[in-house]
Amino acid sequence: MRPTGPLLTLTLLQGVSWGVMAVVTAAIFGAWPVSMATVHAWEWLAWGTGALGGSASVFHMHRLAAARHVLRRLRSSWLSREALSTGGYMAVLSVAVALRVLWPQARGLWEAATLLAAGLGAVAVYITAMLYATIPAMRSWHSPLTVVVFFAAALLSGLAGAGAVAAWTGGPGRGGLPGVEAAAALVFGALVALQIRAFRLAAAGVLAATGTGLAGRPYRLQDAGGSRPPYRTQTQIWPVLPAAVRTSGYAAVLVLAVVGPCLAALQGTAGLVWGAGSAWLGVALSRGMFFADATHSSRVWFADQPKIPSPVRREPGRPYRRRTSIKL
Amino acid sequence: MQLTIITDLNKCVGCKSCQVSCKEHNTSGDFGPVPDHDPYREAEGMWWNRVIGMEAGEYPHVGVMYLPKACMHCYDAPCVPVCPTGASYKRDDNGVVLVDYEACIGCQLCMWACPYGVREFDEHEGVVKKCTLCIDRIEDESLPPEDRQPACVQSCPTHARTFGDLEDPDSAVAHLVAERQGFVLLPELGARPAIHYLPRRHAPGWVDAETIERVLGEGS
Ligand code: SF4
Ligand code: SF4
Ligand code: SF4
Fold it and tell me: What separation in Å is there between the alpha carbon of B99 and the centre of ligand 2?
């Protein structure tokens, strides 16, 4: 699947925005001894990233003239629902920001609007993730793991953003954040590892036998009917990543999104800013890999079927050993 | 009614006549021109029907197959419910899946949802296009009845493609599917395509020169 700027920007910034709002919610419930200045700066960050992400989604539409129809299929289309939920989230978040700026004494109202926005933000992230997870043809994404990874990425990037802002605003809001961010990074790393395996299994599950009726294997593609990389008119497909690119891409994700924030946490508040930069880069790269490494079912007509050795066949002279990993 | 095309994989010789005639008709046809601004230089431009060529097995046990692939006009078309604007729809009267270009925002979600990779993005108009089952031909009553069939069906030199109503048990396509074990592609993805293929039969064995002489002699 071709990774595009608007999709990367929307999904990443929507995640940052809601992740920061989750931190704000925790702060309202007293998870951290935090100054109001810091909480307000967090809310601005959530609003800014959410607004940027929402604006980016406009560029994913290639024919704005029909944009007025986008809510027509709310009953079945996750994209219709995404437009509604992301819009609703930003509207309520804007009300919360406006209440604090224009009517600072109405703290109760601000808190209610903020908590409502955080709840709607969670719904928006869920809906965005479901848009990807509910497409059976996108073999790599068609899994509940996609939803879990989207939430973990949102939490990590939100915590990282909130940490950087807290380091910048100073005050007591920094306590405990580096440790929580490191824990989120470890969870995210574990989920990315699961996702790598799920993507490999998905790639191995695209079968020429059902895609062509040809039972003999291996098969080779002679002619894809005029399709050629980078598949300008067929954006559901993307050239298969070379193994070296895939390996180094995922290695960079794990270093940036997991090792970086954990090392930064060892430095306490001093590491919050560079730890945030590292986490954001890692999460952004992981989203890039989410698109670029994904297998669509139509790949059966675009690339040779990978040769996969029998996992249970005994090799001559070697004891029986069940292979537990799939190498492509 | 569910209109369909059945392709006999024994007869398809990979000549790409259907691929080219589809492009020719839909570049000049009524429904939606294929937008290749430079079709003779951009071979990788838009094609609504692509003939895939593939080989399987290892020498000397090798098989070669050609597979014309266009929209499958699926019963449970996954491209339809994902479309936020309702631009993608399936007609109730004949089962043809179409795109209303006026309502399409070009989000391409339908391209991800289609298991068959047969939708194509028109960069110039910002909308998604695909095989219409030549709806403009099959419903054009000004055409003589023998021309009211898809361009790719009409142009096939080996008559590998047959057009008709899959839900009419007396139609040629229903007979072919029933009698020749018609199959669909990627059935495990649940789209229930209307387009079927007829599987290849056992290839004739080695024919030696003596047999050829004998058969030719019988004919003379
Ligand atoms: S083949 Fe693809 S585009 Fe055609 S109806 Fe099925 S899902 Fe839709
Ligand atoms: S690209 Fe057009 S037809 Fe496809 S899902 Fe989007 S709006 Fe619908
Ligand atoms: S039915 Fe018409 S539009 Fe569809 S592949 Fe055949 S010629 Fe092309």
Answer: 8
Tell whether ligand 1 has an atom less than 6 A from the beta carbon of residue B118: yes
**A83: which 2 tokens?**
């437009």
Q: What percent of chain A has pLDDT over 70?
A: 91
**B201, exposed or middle or buried, with CB in 10 Å at 0-12, 13-18, 19+?**
exposed
Nearest by Cα to A164 from A263, A261, A288, A294:
A261
- Whole-number average pLDDT of chain A: 90
Q: What is the pLDDT of residues B59-103, one digit of tens each?
A: 777 778 899 999 999 999 999 999 999 999 999 999 999 999 999
pLDDT at A304: 83
Is residue B210 classed exposed, middle or buried when 0-12, 13-18 and 19+ CB atoms within 10 A define those classes?
exposed
The residue written with tokens 């939606």 in the block is B32
Res B107 pLDDT > 70: yes
Tell me the torsion sign for CA atoms A145, A149, A150, A151: positive
Using a CB-CB distance cutoff of 8 angstroms, which residues of chain A are in contact with residue B113? Answer: 135, 137
Nearest protein CA to atom 6 of ligand 3, as residue: B152
Chain B nearest-CA residue for A6:
B107
Q: How far apart are CA B128 and CA B101, in angstroms?
A: 8
Q: Kindly state the tokens that stand for A217.
A: 């294997």
Q: What is the ipTM of this complex?
A: 0.90
pLDDT > 70? residue A314: no
Please indicate whether residue A5 or residue B35 has the higher confidence score (pLDDT).
A5
Strand partners, A220: B55
- Shortest CB distance from A137 goes to which of B43, B45, B189? B189
Cα separation, A321 vs A314, whole angstroms = 7
Q: Hey, is A98 helix, strand or coil?
A: helix
Domains of chain A, first to last:
5-210+228-306 (1.20.1630.10)
Q: Give the Å distance between the CA of A15 and the centre of ligand 2.
A: 24
> What pTM, to 2 d.p., does this model score?
0.91
| CATH of B3-219 among 2.60.40.10, 3.30.450.40, 2.120.10.30, 3.30.70.20 | 3.30.70.20
pLDDT value at residue A211:
85
Give residue A170's pLDDT: 74
Q: Which two tokens stand for residue A299?
A: 């790949």
